[in-house]
Amino acid sequence: MTKEPMPDPQYTTPSEVANFFLEIGKREKVPITPMKLLKIIYIAYGWALGAENIRLFGEEIEAWKYGPVVPSVYHEFKHFGGNPIVDFLSQEYDAFEDVEARTPIISPDDTDVMDVLSFVWDLYKDKSATKLMRLTHIKDGPWDKVWRAHQNENYEINPEDIRTYYVVLLDKVLEDAA
């Protein structure tokens, strides 16, 4: 059996995915801290690859001490510390263009991506950041393998390893449901 090639990224940055979760969290009054946002983005990235072979974005996901991290999302929201992110959605602005800043969003027409993100939200929204951290630290999972090999370094988690992990997880879930 041949492996499918890694798909091209759907979006150029993880901002669209972050904004999906921040917007729905705000709408449903579910507080989202930076750590919870980082973990739920990673989980969504994994489920999108494993279930639909959709690569949500091209930015590297790195193994840091407290789990998988999307560096741009971490740096954008770290000033909130352990507090919920409030009244702030990621913005994009090109200083060389004479246009207003825009909020990157996922197109509602992108139903495959919206379905995966909604599934992930429904499944994980009530879990604390600490619980999500534990889920992403599963022994022999993608983060664990990279962290054990490169401790104390922020090292990329291979997207193929993430996809493989979530394909196996999906198969297990389907097998348990049968």
Q: Brief overview, please?
A:
With 178 residues, this protein is mostly helical.
Keywords:
178 residues; mainly alpha; two-stranded parallel ribbon; 7 helices; 5 strands; globular
Would you kindly provide a written description of the structure presented here, covering whatever features stand out?
The chain has 178 residues and is mainly alpha-helical. It has one domain (9-177). It has 7 helices and 5 strands. It has helices spanning 15-27, 34-52, 71-77, 111-124, 129-136, 142-149, 159-177; strands at 9-11, 55-57, 62-64, 67-69, 155-156. The strands form 2 sheets. A 3-stranded antiparallel sheet has the order 4-3-5. A two-stranded parallel sheet has the order 1-2. Strand 3 and strand 4 form a beta hairpin. Helix 2 (34-52) packs across helix 5. The radius of gyration is 16 Å and the shape is globular. The mean pLDDT is 90.
| Spatial separation of the terminal alpha carbons | 24 Å
Biggest sheet overview: 3 strands, antiparallel
Uncertain segments are none
* Dominant shape: globular
Number of helices: 7
On the 0 to 100 scale, the average pLDDT is: 90
Q: H/E order of the elements?
A: EHHEEEHHHHEH
Strand order of the largest sheet: 4-3-5
- Tell me the radius of gyration: 16 Å
How much strand content do the residues show? Answer: 5-15%
The tally of domains stands at 1
Supply the helix-strand structural class: mainly alpha
How many distinct beta strands?
Answer: 5
Helix content: 40-55%
